[in-house]
Design a protein that fits this description.
Length: 358
C-alpha cells in the first residue's frame, strides 16, 4: 500500500492521448481520484472474475481509466478544457462507476470518498461485495444516484449520506445532492438514519435488509441534520426489514406517491393525517404484514389517486367491510385479507373499473 501511494505521488497524473489524428492532447487526471480507483481495485483483488470481461480494463498498470480504447469497464470520465487557448489540454474527472453483475468479491474502501466528482455510483448484483458502506461516501458532494442493491453489504447505513450542512447562524451551506438511493437486498442492520437532510431525494429503497428499531421522521426541523424540506421525495420502500413502532411521520412530504412499509413490525393504529400529507397524490400504499391494530384506516383522501392498496395481514379490529372503499375509482389492486373483516362484501365494489381484489 505504501509503495503504491509513493509511486502515485511520484507520477505526474498526466496521460497522453491521441484524441484526434493530428494533435497530441494531454489528459490531466486528479491524483486523488486515480488513487481512489487503485484503492478500489486493490480491495477487489479477491475477485474471481475474468478481468477481461467483468472488470475488463481495471488494472494497476494502466492507471488512467479513460485511456483511449483501453478504458476501464463501467467507468465514465468527464473531459474539461480549462484554458480555451489550449484546447488540447483536458482536466479529467471520474463521474460514473456503473458495474452490474461483475462478480466483484471484496469491500468498498474508504478511499472511495476521494471521487468527489462522482455523479453516479452503481454497483449492483455482486453478492460477493460485502463489508460496510463507508461513511466517506458522504463526502461525494456531487453524487446524484447511489445504487448498491443486490450485494452482500452489511453494517449500518451511514447517516453522512444524507447530510446537508448548515452554519452556526443556521443558513444552509451545503445541500446533499442525492436524488436516488437504492440499498435493497443487502444485509444492512442498525437503525434507519434521519433522511431529512437530503432535500433532493426522490426515491429511497432499502427493502429486504435487517434494519431494526423505530423509523425516524423523514423531516425534523428541530435537528441539525433532518431540517431540509423534502420537496422531491416520491418513493419510499422500507419493506422486509425489522422496523418497529409507529410508521414514519411523512406529513411534510407532499409529493409522495408510493409507500411500501410491508413486512416489518410496525404497530399501533393508523391515523392517516398524522402519517401522510393529505394533499399528496398517493398511488401505491402497502402496509401489509405488520402488526397494525385499531380501525381500518379511512384513506378516502386518496380516493382519486390510489391504484394499489394493501392492508392485508395485520391485526385490525374485526369490522364490516369498509364502505369508503367504494369511492376509490382508480383502484386496480385491493387486499384486505386476514384482517377479520366481517359482513358481506360490498356489492358495488365489483363495479370499480379496474379492480382486482386479492
Ligand atoms: C489482496 O490484497 C491483500 C491486501 O493487500 C493481500 O493480502 C492478498 O494477498 C491479495 N490477494 C490476492 C489474490 O492478490
Ligand atoms: C487500441 O487501439 C490501437 C490503435 O487504434 C490498436 O492498435 C490496439 O490494438 C487497440 N487495443 C485494444 C486493446 O483494442
Ligand atoms: C492558456 O494557455 C496559453 C497557451 O498555452 C497560455 O499562454 C496561457 O497562459 C494560459 N492561460 C491560463 C489562464 O492558464
Ligand atoms: C494543462 O493545463 C494545466 C492547468 O491549466 C497545467 O497545469 C498543465 O501544465 C497543462 N499541461 C500541459 C501539458 O500543457
Ligand atoms: C460483515 O461482513 C464481513 C465480511 O463478510 C464480516 O467479516 C463481518 O463480520 C460482517 N459484519 C457484520 C456486522 O455482520
Ligand atoms: C470525509 O468523510 C470523513 C468521515 O465522514 C471525514 O472525517 C473527512 O473529513 C472527510 N474528508 C474530506 C476531505 O472531506
Ligand atoms: C438499482 O439497480 C437494480 C439492479 O440493476 C435495478 O433493478 C434498480 O431499478 C436500480 N434502482 C434504481 C433506483 O434505479
Ligand atoms: C459541515 O460543516 C462543518 C463546519 O462548518 C464541517 O466541519 C463539516 O465537515 C461539514 N460536514 C459536511 C458533511 O459537509
Ligand atoms: C422549509 O419550508 C418552510 C415553509 O415553506 C420554510 O419556511 C423553511 O425556510 C424551509 N426550510 C429550509 C431549510 O429550506
Ligand atoms: C410529524 O412531523 C411534523 C413536522 O413535519 C410535525 O409538525 C408533527 O407534529 C409530526 N407528527 C407527529 C404525530 O409526530
Ligand atoms: C394532485 O393531483 C391534483 C389533481 O390532479 C393536482 O391538482 C395536484 O397538484 C396534485 N398534487 C401534487 C402534490 O402533485
Ligand atoms: C401485535 O400487537 C399485539 C397487541 O399490541 C401484541 O399482543 C402482539 O404480540 C403483537 N404481535 C407481534 C407479532 O408483534
Amino acid at each position: 500500500m505504501m509503495i503504491l501511494k509513493l509511486l502515485l505521488a511520484l507520477l505526474m497524473m498526466l496521460s497522453i492521448n491521441l484524441r484526434s489524428s493530428e494533435a497530441t492532447c494531454y489528459n490531466v487526471y486528479s491524483r486523488s481520484e486515480v488513487y481512489a480507483l487503485q484503492s478500489i481495485l486493490a480491495a477487489w483483488n479477491e475477485s474471481t472474475p475474468d478481468m477481461t470481461t467483468n472488470l475488463a480494463g481495471w488494472s494497476s498498470s494502466q492507471i488512467f481509466p479513460c485511456y483511449n480504447n483501453q478504458s476501464w469497464r463501467g467507468v465514465i470520465c468527464s473531459f474539461y478544457v480549462d484554458n480555451i487557448t489550449d484546447p488540447c489540454n483536458f482536466t479529467v474527472n471520474i463521474v460514473v462507476i456503473h458495474l452490474t453483475a461483475a462478480s466483484i468479491v471484496g469491500t468498498l474502501p474508504s478511499a472511495i470518498g476521494h471521487l468527489t466528482r462522482l455523479v453516479e455510483l452503481t454497483l449492483t448484483d455482486n453478492p460477493g461485495l460485502s463489508g460496510n458502506i463507508p461513511k466517506e461516501l458522504g463526502n461525494l458532494t456531487n453524487l446524484v444516484i447511489l445504487n448498491l442493491s443486490n450485494n452482500g453489504l452489511n453494517g449500518s447505513i451511514p447517516a453522512e449520506l444524507f447530510r446537508s450542512n448548515r452554519s452556526s447562524n443556521r443558513s444552509v451551506i451545503r445541500q446533499s445532492t442525492l436524488q436516488q438511493i437504492d440499498l435493497s437486498n443487502n444485509q444492512l442492520s442498525g437503525n434507519l438514519p434521519n433522511l431529512g437532510g437530503a432535500s433532493w431525494l426522490q426515491s429511497v429503497k432499502i427493502s429486504n435488509n435487517k434494519l431494526t428499531g423505530p423509523s425516524p421522521p423523514f423531516y425534523d426541523p428541530g435537528t441539525d441534520y433532518g431540517f431540509m424540506n423534502m420537496t422531491e421525495l416520491n418513493t419510499i420502500d422500507l419493506s422486509e426489514n425489522e422496523l418497529v413502532g409507529s410508521p414514519p411521520n411523512l406529513t411534510a412530504i407532499w409529493r409522495l406517491q408510493s409507500v411500501n412499509l410491508s413486512s416489518n413490525y410496525f404497530n399501533g393504529s393508523i391515523i392517516p393525517t398524522s402519517i401522510f400529507n393529505t394533499s399528496a397524490n398517493l398511488t401505491v400504499l402497502d402496509l401489509s404484514h405488520n402488526n397494525f391494530t385499531g380501525l381500518l384506516p379511512d384513506l378516502s383522501t386518496f380516493s382519486n389517486s390510489l391504484t394499489q392498496l394493501n392492508l392485508s395481514f395485520n391485526s385490525f379490529n374485526p369490522e364490516p367491510y369498509p364502505a369508503w372503499v367504494k369511492g376509490f375509482n382508480q383502484l386496480s389492486m385491493l387486499s384486505l385479507k386476514r384482517n377479520g373483516l366481517s359482513g358481506s362484501f360490498p356489492y358495488d365494489l365489483a363495479s370499480l373499473p379496474n379492480l382486482e381484489i386479492l
